[in-house]
Write a structure and sequence with these properties.
Elements: H1 5-16, H2 20-29, H3 34-50, H4 78-100, E1 161-170, H5 171-181, E2 185-188, E3 196-204, H6 206-217, E4 219-225, E5 228-233
Parallel strand pairs: 2-5
Antiparallel strand pairs: 1-3, 4-5
Helix pairs in contact: 1-3
Length: 254
């Protein structure tokens, strides 16, 4: 039967130190391991009796007694010889430096100074002539007149506009705002039927927009001159105007 590791370790610990209390507690906890415990206790006891104590190695070593050295000073006359050697070396070094150093360059020559006074060039004097009999007058230039740009006399209501657009607006309000913004004076006749209109025009003049709207919403435009326009509805019976004539678009603009 294999002994569990924790029981095996505890058993070896009791075998190395087999006190009565330790043996009793182990046998109480593990009664089936009593024989194995006693076997290990005897094994450990036999091993301890077989080991002999080692011989002591504490031996006293002999004490060391150093011998004082004898005199080792320099021989007589050594300072003089050393001084002469140093002097000879210094002399040779100075001589070698004197021969090897570069020689200084000769000084530059002094330029010769001319102490004679300089010779001045001859001076030619110019005698002014008699004054002119008549004073000179500068030519006169006529100032140039700025060129004026040509004046555009075209009425505003005849000039194309980039965009004219209305959405869900009263036709009477559209005609009023369109003519007023372009410098026209419009008179809308009685019995004019108002309605909601939506349109967009590009690059059309106010007069062109007005004429196109008259085709769509049944009214006439009459140019009375001087920027005055008369806007009249077309009657439903026979498309006649108030004078009994056929309703046509009158000429607008100059």
């Amino acid at each position: 039967m294999k002994i569990p590791p924790e029981v095996d370790g505890l058993m070896w610990g009791v075998a190395e130190n087999p006190t009565d209390k330790a043996v009793e507690e182990f046998v109480v906890r593990f009664p089936n391991q009593r024989a194995e415990l006693m076997k290990r206790i005897n094994m450990v006891r036999d091993l301890k009796h077989q080991v002999k104590p080692a011989d002591p190695l504490h031996r006293e070593l002999p004490r060391f007694h150093p011998t004082p050295p004898g005199p080792t000073g320099p021989p007589a006359g050594w300072p003089i010889a050393a001084g002469l050697g140093v002097l000879a070396l210094a002399t040779l070094a100075f001589a070698g430096y004197s021969f090897s150093r570069p020689q200084p360059a000769p000084p530059p020559p002094v330029p010769k100074v001319n102490l004679e006074p300089p010779t001045l060039p001859p001076v030619n004097y110019v005698t002014p002539g008699p004054p002119p009999s008549q004073p000179l007058t500068p030519p006169t230039t006529q100032p140039t007149q700025p060129t004026s740009a040509p004046v555009d006399n075209t009425p505003t209501y005849m000039k194309p506009q980039e965009t004219v657009a209305f959405k869900d607006e009263s036709l009477v309000n559209v005609l009023t705002m369109l003519t007023a913004a372009s410098g026209m004076h419009a008179i809308i006749g009685p019995n004019f039927q108002d309605q909601k209109v939506t349109f967009t025009y590009h690059n059309k003049s106010a007069v062109e927009v007005l004429l196109d709207l008259s085709k769509q919403y049944a009214f006439t435009v009459s140019d009375e001159g001087g920027g005055n326009f008369l806007i009249l509805p077309i009657p439903d019976s026979g498309n006649r105007d108030f004078d009994g004539n056929s309703a046509v678009h009158q000429k607008v603009g100059p």
